[in-house]
From TrEMBL:
It holds the Pfam family RabGAP-TBC. Signal peptide: none annotated. The lineage of its organism: Eukaryota, Fungi, Dikarya, Ascomycota, Pezizomycotina. Residues 156-349 form the Rab-GAP TBC domain. This is Putative TBC domain-containing protein.
Length: 425
């Protein structure tokens, strides 16, 4: 016999016949592993992408023909976006074409051209307020009251202008609020605090390697982004001793370090703390966070069909909203979508002086962009939530939400924000 044929025969396992009853049990068990479970019937939960595909493959109750036609009228545009929110979890037509075409072709070129045009529009809106040698240290200012700038911010800040725009937005808020502290003073405090010890250093050291460790900047232990992240969080824990360090802060600092050096990232965090309500969100015992989630439940979710479903399942915003608000959606939606939310939050996150500050409502409208984004995510997952049991509803709300159409997410967020403003005024 040929040596290769002999080896093949010896390697073939012999088949042993099992008694009929054991054979049946074996087939039953193996079939359990091979079949597709229905996640609504209490079987193994599918991933959110699979659940979305399953929902869309079924007949989902749609608005009446009259209502669908009415939604196309100019005055009902916001209602249309809210009812079509579920589409944010699928690729928009232009990007879907790119996903199917490896080379991208004309669609990619069109997007590049559009991005260049948007970048030029932002360049024309920017006013130089500080120049440095060879362009270093150059600062820009934007008119935050301009309707054109507000509208373009909702459409997304071009990435090359994002750092300058965010800094300008917070600088304007600081000067408007009063008690303005220059960047240089905050930077000086940063370097001074680096020489001091913090009681939170051990916990910070534990959390740093777990923060966005899939990003190339934060992979190497004790080097690169991890080193910068530790230094910023260390200084922040001392700069705001009443808060100290709390888990969740690391994701905020990491996002800023993608756009700024360590000293400017610290400046931005310090301003966000005092100007965007983060000091209240992270307050010891989290009374501010509880107040924010209570406001979201009573003022933003009240009266919705999906709210009734969540109430039946005994799921309150504290079960899923804690991570959304403390990380500003860093661990809940894709990074490009998070940046779009931050764009608008940096611009429109000022508290409203016409709204009285109380213990129950300490933010005076300052978190409305976060509330609107949370409502938009509920809108986007509405059809799935309405068909879910407790386990799957919690999985959807506490897991990564695969937002693939940031444009639609922001349109729904804007619609929710405008609806809230109408209720208030």
């Amino acid at each position: 016999m040929d040596i290769y044929a002999k080896t093949a025969v010896e390697a073939t396992p012999s088949v042993k016949l099992l008694p009929d009853d054991i054979e049946k049990e074996s087939q039953k068990v193996r079939s359990m592993y091979e079949q597709d479970y229905d996640w609504r019937e209490g079987g193994i939960s599918l991933g959110l992408d699979a659940q979305i595909a399953q929902i869309k493959a079924e007949v989902v109750p749609m608005p009446s023909q009259f209502r669908a036609a009415a939604n196309r009228l100019p005055g009902n545009k916001d209602r249309r976006w809210m009812e079509e929110a579920g589409d944010m979890l699928t690729l928009p037509p232009g990007l879907a074409d790119i996903a199917e075409d490896e080379e991208g072709g004309k669609a990619v070129e069109g997007m590049k051209k559009k991005e260049f045009e948007r970048t030029e529009k932002w360049r024309k809106m920017a006013k130089i307020v500080k120049t440095g040698k060879d362009g270093e240290g150059m600062e820009f200012q934007f008119d935050t009251r301009s309707p054109k700038l507000i509208e373009r911010t909702w459409k997304g800040i071009p990435d090359r202008w994002r750092a300058a725009a965010w800094h300008s937005f917070l600088m304007t808020s600081a000067k408007k609020r009063g008690g303005y502290v220059p960047d240089e003073d905050i930077k000086a405090a940063f370097y001074k605090l680096l020489k001091q010890s913090s009681a939170d250093d051990v916990q910070i050291d534990l959390d740093v390697p777990r923060t966005i460790n899939s990003h190339i900047m934060f992979r190497k232990r004790y080097r690169g982004g991890q080193r910068l992240l530790f230094r910023v969080l260390h200084a922040l824990s001392l700069y705001f001793p009443e808060t100290g360090y709390v888990q969740g802060m690391a994701s905020l600092a990491a996002t800023l370090l993608c756009y700024y050096d360590e000293e400017m990232a610290f400046v931005m965090l310090a301003r966000m703390w005092t100007l965007r309500g983060l000091n209240k969100l992270y307050e010891h015992g989290f009374p501010g966070l509880m107040a924010a989630l209570d406001e979201f439940q009573k003022s933003w979710l009240k009266g919705r069909e999906v709210t009734k479903k969540l109430d039946e399942l005994l799921i309150e915003p504290t079960a899923y909203g804690t991570r959304w608000y403390l990380t500003l959606f860093n661990y809940s939606i894709p990074f490009p979508a998070q940046l779009r939310v931050w764009d608008v939050f940096m611009l429109l996150g000022d508290s409203d002086p016409s709204i009285p500050v109380t213990g129950e409502r300490p933010f005076a409208g300052g978190l409305d962009i976060l509330h609107a984004t949370s409502a938009a995510l509920i809108d986007g997952t509405r059809e799935i939530l309405l068909d879910s049991d407790f386990e799957n509803a919690m999985k959807i709300l506490t897991s990564w939400i695969p937002v693939k159409d940031e444009e639609l997410l922001m349109k729904v967020t804007k619609a929710e924000w405008k609806l809230s403003r109408k209720r208030k005024h």
